[in-house]
Specification:
alpha+beta; lipid metabolism; 8-stranded antiparallel β-barrel; Dna Ligase, domain 1; 18 helices; D-amino Acid Aminotransferase, Chain A, domain 1; 6 domains; Propionyl-CoA carboxylase alpha chain, mitochondrial; ligase; EC 6.4.1.3; lipid degradation
Amino acid sequence: KLLIANRGEIACRVIKTCRKMGIKTVAIHSDVDANAVHVKMADEAVCVGPAPTSKSYLNMDAIMEVIRKTRAQAVSLNVSICCSFLSSLSLQASEGVTFIGPDTHAIQAMGDKIESKLLAKNAKVNTIPGFDGVVKDADEAVRIAREIGYPVMIKASAGGGGKGMRIAWDDEETREGFRFSSQEAASSFGDDRLLIEKFIDNPRHIEIQVCTIIIVLADKHGNALWLNERECSIQRRNQKVVEEAPSTFLDPETRRAMGEQAVALAKAVKYSSAGTVEFLVDSSKNFYFLEMNTRLQVEHPVTECITGLDLVQEMIRVAKGYPLRHKQADIPINGWAVECRVYAEDPYKSFGLPSIGKLSQYQEPLHVPSVRVDSGIQQGSDISIYYDPMISKLITYGSNRAEALKRMEEALDNYVIRGVAHNISLLREVIVHPRFVQGDISTKFLPEVYPEGFKGHKLTDLERRQLLATAASLYVAEQLRSQQFLGTPRIPIAKSKRSSWELSVHLGDGTYPVAVSKDGSSFSVEVDGMKLNVTSEWNLASPLLSVTIDGTQRTIQRISRNASGETSIQFLGTVYKLQILTKVAAELSKYMPEKAAEDTSSILRSPMPGTVVAVSVKPGDMVSEGQEICVIEAMKMQNSMIAAKTGKVSHLRSLKTICNLSNKIEFK
């Protein structure tokens, strides 16, 4: 019986393998997760506290009590627990409980970035230049940063997942980075220690998966092998967004050198489980050790796809004491796998600010060939402020990279998510971008490709005509359906023989005359003097609609519509707002008064729901443009809210501990 001290998609992932192996599972959950998918999947489930992670999923005493109560024989932990669970592991061992993962020494050594860097140096692993001790305060951080030379990376020693991490280009950013990184580290990991190292400009982020075992004989020796690499360079706020395996950048010699160094480090700490050694690689293919994660990482499915291994099963076998079943020569690179992290985020705000809400409609694209979805949610699930906003991991596999990317494009188009904002538009734009397709990527990809921020897909003239023709055809199909009488003998007095429509479609900054004529189940649409043939089954009740426009197949989603002709359509991943009116209605609409937009120039409004952790002003204070007003914490990340103009604070309205989008601070 295995207790899983985790939540979401990774807990569900472990449960699936346990079922395959005939192992019973115990789930823990907070009170707000009582109806979560992982709770329903497990054989048993126990509540360990209220919503905040520190009081539930990181509540060591409660988890130890559940282990005793359920008589669990093994326990699988998340990364944050691993770093703070060390004092309990010896107690588990004395009670006959097996830990699914490496031993306490490896967790402690590799979970601490300062100690892991020193161990890596001793194991002859390439490391990034920097300060190897603990940074005491902001003044010392500035002094060390000057000695190393800007830019520098400020990191939480016990960190991971991009939390407690800041890039600083000058003294002011170093002081600010020290403050926020230490606060995030304390909140997420219970450890506010920081280190500083040189920031490698324009790097690629590449990981080597390691799977090792220790066999206790007369003399202690271990077996280790590396399972190829993962490319993880597409990131925002130091968190990965798109991953793939293998990397387009590595040649066999570099791959082997990185793999051998990863194995050397694993053996140096007597590592015995599945783990990940992360490297940064520069343009000359020089590589530097970044960290070792002593856990199953989010992006592990791409490794499983190209090697054929079940890493969760391997971890359980190793923990039970079995030797590895494979040699290094047995580890292949079969095909190509790509993973997109689907988040409940608004990609138009800093490449993704968290969104909360209930999933009113949810449909995974599992009907697309060679698609895997690892998720821990379902239709009706809540995305809350307390946990990571990940919806799922979407993985596609192909015999080569082009095939895997094409399937990912199709899968993203067929993914239905309603009720929360999501980042599918950004993911789709990344995987079809010429630079990404060519493999010309780095960790600076997003800011370089979208220097003004992500704006969605920019339609070509042909794509604009396709969207207008599709929207007009959809409008006419709906008008025709509304004239039908189903399930009744009622017969209309006069049958409508109308076969053509003159419409006015507003899209973006333009209004376009569109003529539609019906021909069987197809529509002939004239846009910009060009005729397009639009064909579909016109199943208006389906969230997905497959449309063929002059032989080109597109999968669209109609997100919303109202009686005034306004409709939102997801086309090529991006949601476009249109207004479709008849020619007469369009002429009359000019007489309708428009609602004036709210003047927000004197208001600081929270861009996301979250927790107010600090307020730096009070009514009557004078503030300057760019001055910090307050700090909002959402999904374990802290965000500084600054004044957009110089003025005087007049009101702090509804600034409670938990804020929402209506909370604001007003300036005179």
